[in-house]
Design a protein that fits this description.
The chain has about 625 residues and is α+β, with helices and mostly antiparallel strands. About 45% of the residues lie in helices and about 10% in strands. Among the domains are: about 170 residues, 6 Propeller (Neuraminidase); about 90 residues. Strands 6, 7, 8, 9 and 10 form a 5-stranded antiparallel β-sheet that branches. The protein has a 3-stranded antiparallel β-sheet with strand order 3-4-5, with no helix packed on it. A 3-stranded antiparallel β-sheet has the order 11-12-13, with no helix packed on it. A hairpin with a 4-residue loop joins β1 and β2. The chain is flat. The chain starts with a strand and ends with a helix.
Amino acid sequence: MWQLNLKHLELDIYAKGLVNPWGLQFDRWGQSFLTDGAGFEGINYAFPGATFLTSPGAARILRGLNPGQPKHSGLDVISGRHLPESWQGSVITNDFRANRINRFKLEEQGSGYASKQAEDVLWTDHVAFRPVDISVGPDGAIYVADWYNPIIQHGEVDFHDPRRDHEHGRIWRIVAKNRPLVKKTQWSKASVSELLEALKLPEDWTRLQAKQVLKSHGANEVIPALQKWVQGLDKKEADYEHNLLEALWLYQTLEVVNEPLLLQVLNAENHKARAAALRALELWYPKLTNVPTLLTKAVADKHPQVRLEAVIALRKVKTAESARTALTVLENPMDEFLDFALWQTVRELEPLWMTRLKTDPNFFGTAKKTVFALKSVSSAAAVSRLAQLYQNDQIPEEYQKDVLAALAKFGTNADLTILFDKTLQGNASQTKTVASRLSTLEEAARRGVKPEGNLSRITSFIDNEDDAIATSAIQLIGLWHLNEQNSTLVSLAQKGDKNRRKAALGALATLNTDQSQASLVDMTGGKNAADLRLASAAQLVSVNAAEAARIGADLLRTLPAQTDASALFQAFLTNKQAVRAFADELTSRKIPENRAKEGRQLMQRTIPTIDVMQMR
């Protein structure tokens, strides 16, 4: 979602992501919402920097407000005197696949919103009804653009299908019964004073058009009248603060900074007005005075939506202190949207605060704020500092999972040494903690990074009563290439416990030495139980496909018919080379019919037809 200043041709990103963004609308207070023509999460709440599914390289995304909802195209917010009072503020959008128009009720929830589907505005069983855009018009009625086609314009159906309609389309007008329409006014012919009074009207469309026409009159003509209009506003009116906000927005439209008015709206009673004023501050900040003080106050506001906008605005003030101020939002309750905004602000300001933190470890004031900042970025310096805090038990419980994830993804050998030592020294009764730490070490090992020192100490966990701990430890023997533990892995594989046996056989395959391969081959021999022989052969596939094919075919011919061999077949489906080795083996030496059928059914569901033909 782009934002463009038409006068200066300044183009910037407002929000990122979504599969096929197809609907953007602002409500009465400037809050924005999005729909997705190819996504499945209904209404999306957006703000500057919001990032959603499909954004390239996104380290984190926001979810929609209605998970599981259908694809939607077009969006508008209900406003005005014509439509029912109970509909005011709800949003309407098109479910073009199901031939219907949806309505959702929005309710504030923390710094964001909750969205609940209401009864449909319209539904039909006429399959050609394809609503693709929707808008509340100047008369207050709902207007719908109907593509009119029984075939959705995608590749599901041939583009030359005769059912495709290339000629028709419809515009629908939906009105409320027994309610008068809004009287139409030619705003282009209205005076400046009439246009200013139009900013008080309840129709969003009318106020927007009035501002656009006022813009065409120019600042020299409008500003003097606007000043008098603001001075003449009745403070007792219910919409007084919204009228002030409309005036503020008009100043923005005319590109004239009015700091006293901004301060007035920043101190409004209505939190929605305060939040909107912070959005204006974000755009005007280079021309304002005392911005850090204003944002320090706003980030501690009693309402989370105001705090959200303050955290966003602090990105513009490029100082280390801005990050420190933003992190004070943690002193109040957090939610998904606030957490995301803070995370993003801290990431953008990292080059400024990281230098300060190196010289002043207490720059942010508390361990909680420091950890939040460090876990939000992806630099080696940040993760190294996190490892030190972890070593000293200074990671808040709520951030443990995030810190371990950062160590897994970015930790160095030294960082992982701290984690491994901590795991060995930990309380054995804290099974979840130990399991999480070992899982972190596993993930890091898969990217080729491991602790330093005596890694054989990992064997102290292989007999742990907790299955997750034991299997992680066994897998780490392979990932860390502790070849001297080959016999340990063989012994574990032969004990018979299903999960630990599988982990041990997998570790032997990961070791991938002559000795470990020989051990896998030995365990496919007749002296072992059938399930161990099959499991060993399955693991052998990844390291020696030809030998595994020979042994696997023999097992399929000799093991009892009732023995489940699906895992062996699945192992050969990991790559084409393994499939072809197996196919060649079965071509030269047949297997029982029931085994062939079992394998054929599995492979038909998994691999290309050409390989299935080879298997035959």
